[in-house]
Amino acid sequence: MDVITNVSEMQARVLSIKDRKESIGFVPTMGALHEGHVSLVRSARNENDELIVSIYLNPTQFDNKDDFDNYPHQLDKDIEIVEREDADVVFAPGTEEMYPEGFCTYVTQGKLIDSLCGRLRPGHFNGVTTIVTKLFNIIRPDRAYFGQKDYQQSIVIEKLVADLNMGVDVKVLPTVRGEDGLALSSRNKRLNPEERHSALCIYGSLLKAKSMFASNVKDSKEIIEEMTSIIKKAKHTRIDYISIVNANTLEDVSSINGKAVAAVAVWIGNTRLIDNLILE
Ligand code: PAF
């Protein structure tokens, strides 16, 4: 496996893969890899000739300096994990490569970022769409893999690819959870044991939404009230949002008629976690 840190070297490698007419599977990450990333890497390995994983902590998608500064770093360990999964290349550029001096072009999106995390984290999704566009232009993947835990991100990227005719097949794979149900996230590493225990209220609230919906409760307000009370009962929690949205437009729905998503963002101490379940 090769570790490439330079954009032009990465582009040269991609050209040689394209010359051989081989397919490229791509898993973009910000590092601090866990089993959720590994599941993406395994699918990409199975479905493509060449597998490229990027590890780049993208500063432009952080709306909070503290979150960026405290994001876990473990590049050597990440490279070992990816190598074990039989990737061909790790692309790990520095910020001077991705945002060289004078960089001033950003990709922004309309409507889909007006709700959920987009509403509360100004600039976040413009950072995501910009870096994903750059990575797709450099790596020119046939297929790119994302996790359902970042539901809004996956919808935003699907739309980015469609609107800008990028011709990448975006694969969204199910959220990987710990045995206790907590969605795996790089940010979980920042929770102390008591906070980790409190964080279980997030999945608990989503399961409640699912069971209410299964017993024919369609009124979002009623479901959100129950979810709120579960989360408020847990220690160290502060709710950013609990929403039920249309699964495609991400607009709030007052009553669940088509495919919807229950989505939650909660601070557990100083760590903000998100999770969701599809209701259909
Ligand atoms: O989901 C992530 O880890 C990031 O948002 C991504 C897609 C790698 C872009 O930096």
UniProtKB/TrEMBL annotation:
Pathway: Cofactor biosynthesis; (R)-pantothenate biosynthesis; (R)-pantothenate from (R)-pantoate and beta-alanine: step 1/1
Gene Ontology MF annotations: ATP binding; pantoate-beta-alanine ligase activity
Positions that bind (R)-pantoate: Q61, Q153
Active site: H37 (proton donor)
Keywords, ordered alphabetically: ATP-binding, Cytoplasm, Ligase, Nucleotide-binding, Pantothenate biosynthesis
Function: Catalyzes the condensation of pantoate with beta-alanine in an ATP-dependent reaction via a pantoyl-adenylate intermediate.
Family: Belongs to the pantothenate synthetase family.
Subunit structure: Homodimer.
Note from the entry: The reaction proceeds by a bi uni uni bi ping pong mechanism.
Protein's UniProt name: Pantothenate synthetase
Gene, per the UniProt record: panC
